[in-house]
Write a structure and sequence with these properties.
Blueprint: H1 3-6, H2 9-37, H3 45-48, H4 51-80, H5 84-112, H6 114-137, H7 143-171, H8 177-229, H9 244-257, H10 259-276, H11 279-291, H12 295-315, H13 324-344, H14 348-376, H15 382-407, H16 413-432, H17 435-438
Helix pairs in contact: 4-5, 4-8, 5-6, 5-7, 5-9, 5-15, 6-7, 6-8, 7-15, 8-12, 8-14, 9-15, 10-13, 10-15, 10-16, 11-13, 11-16, 12-14, 13-14, 13-16
Length: about 450
């Protein structure tokens, strides 16, 4: 036994923890070296051989499922209680909190490390969702209190997402980032399907308060698994001496200093603003006009897109010989063309096929973009650059949805969807032609 293992008292315990973590890191490095000598792992299994990533990934599978259970349960309660304002205010509070925290969330992750910020964020989300469950159990009379919990939930979301992006780069080599993001995409899509179904079952079985409480359990377990994983090595980041807001602007400065980055983020913003976000409101109306179907037809299209997204996460690794810039924005060009086709197709069968392709390609493009961002941005800036990326995507979504009713004054839903898709298609296609984007390359030995 080592001296650290036989030491007593707090100092001995701390020494034992450090020694244990160091031994684990050394063992993992030896395992990686042995794997590389034997030809390495293949496919999605590569990142999963790392204990800390496995724990983080398992936690996210649980928390994402709990998130969907929570959403379905809250919506079900609002409808049953005849109080749509409760749901609207809660979602508004969540969206507001997310956007506000994204302004500084990346700077927090870069300053304090991914693990610490994820623990703070998950703790906030546990408190927020538990607060909503408690309010509902008490009768849900105080809408302001539930909306405040929604704000806290959004603050947790805004802190968590850039930290989670950074965590991948702290736990994995660049060659495994594509596989890790593919796994994350699969988890998100599977959680959406399973969480929505589970939420409906729980709502009927134990009521809204019980269902919301079980949704809270997902965040609680994710928090516990990050704690179990223990601290992990991070790059030394000497304090800059700047305030948090000034540090946060470092991400913006870095984005605008690199043409491939600001062009890419801007192009994604256009696609989200013109197609991805408005389609949530336009596609149901367009499918009713063109296909003559109701809610069932739209549900079929959404389900097909979700199935395609799951398939895209599974297959993206087979496309790693395609340069990432071409894969991402060539894929977004296909996605925009697909939405235009959905606005024109008079056949339900053809629309289902197109929705399947749109989901698969959008998922693959998103996975490839996340891996590209993580592998090319310096580690000390990933949190802040990720915040900028999230802020553009999430910030334009509500604005785009608010614009939909006004746009419908100029044409039918299908016409508006097709026109917006064609414009976004042109922007995505032009992005592929930008030399800095087209010449992006994967790190040598990338696995997926």
């Amino acid at each position: 036994m080592t001296a650290a293992a036989t030491a007593t008292g707090p100092a001995g315990d701390a020494a034992g923890d450090v020694a244990g973590e160091a031994a684990h890191d050394a063992g993992e490095a030896a395992h990686d070296a042995a794997g590389a000598a034997a030809g390495g792992g293949t496919g999605l299994r590569v990142p999963l051989r790392r204990r800390r990533f496995r724990l983080l990934y398992a936690g996210q599978c649980l928390s994402r499922t709990g998130d969907f259970v929570f959403q379905v349960s809250l919506a079900g309660y609002a409808v049953t209680a005849g109080n749509p304002a409760l749901l609207a205010y809660t979602l508004f509070g969540q969206a507001t909190g997310t956007v506000l925290m994204l302004l500084v969330g990346g700077a927090l992750a870069d300053r304090f490390g991914a693990r610490r910020v994820m623990l703070w964020a998950d703790a906030a989300r546990v408190l927020a969702t538990a607060g909503v469950a408690a309010q509902v159990a008490a009768g849900g009379q105080h809408v302001w209190a539930i909306a405040a919990c929604g704000l806290l939930l959004g603050l947790g979301d805004g802190a968590f997402e850039p930290a989670f992006t950074l965590a991948f780069t702290e736990l994995l080599p660049k060659t495994e980032l594509l596989a890790a993001n593919a796994l994350q995409s699969i988890a998100l899509r599977t959680a959406g399907i399973a969480g929505a179904a589970l939420g409906g079952v729980l709502l009927a079985a134990v009521g809204a308060a019980g269902s919301l409480a079980l949704g809270t359990a997902g965040f609680t377990l994710a928090l516990a698994l990050v704690l179990v994983a223990g601290s992990w090595p991070t790059a030394d980041r000497p304090p800059s001496g700047d305030g948090l807001l000034k540090e946060a602007t470092g991400g913006i400065r870095y984005v605008f200093a690199h043409r491939w980055l600001w062009v890419s983020i801007g192009s994604f913003g256009v696609s989200v603003a013109l197609v991805v976000a408005p389609a949530k409101a336009l596609l149901p109306l367009a499918s009713a006009d063109v296909l003559g179907g109701g809610a069932g037809t739209y549900s079929l299209l959404v389900g097909s897109q979700a199935a395609g997204a799951l398939l895209g996460g599974l297959l993206v690794g087979r496309l790693r010989r395609v340069p990432p810039g071409v894969l991402v924005f060539g894929g977004m060009t296909v996605v925009c063309a697909g939405f235009a086709a959905l606005g024109l197709s008079p056949s339900v069968a053809a629309s289902v096929g197109v929705a399947l392709v749109v989901g698969a390609v959008l998922s693959a493009a998103t996975v490839a973009w996340a891996a590209t961002l993580q592998s090319r941005v310096p580690g000390e800036l990933i949190g802040r650059v990720s915040s900028v990326d999230w802020l553009i995507s999430l910030g334009v979504s509500p604005l785009a949805l608010v614009a939909v009713p006004h746009l419908l004054g100029f044409g039918a839903p299908a016409t508006v969807l097709v026109a917006a898709s064609v414009i976004a298609l042109a922007v995505s296609a032009a992005t592929v032609l930008v030399p800095d984007v087209r010449r992006l390359a994967w790190p040598a030995g990338t696995a997926a």
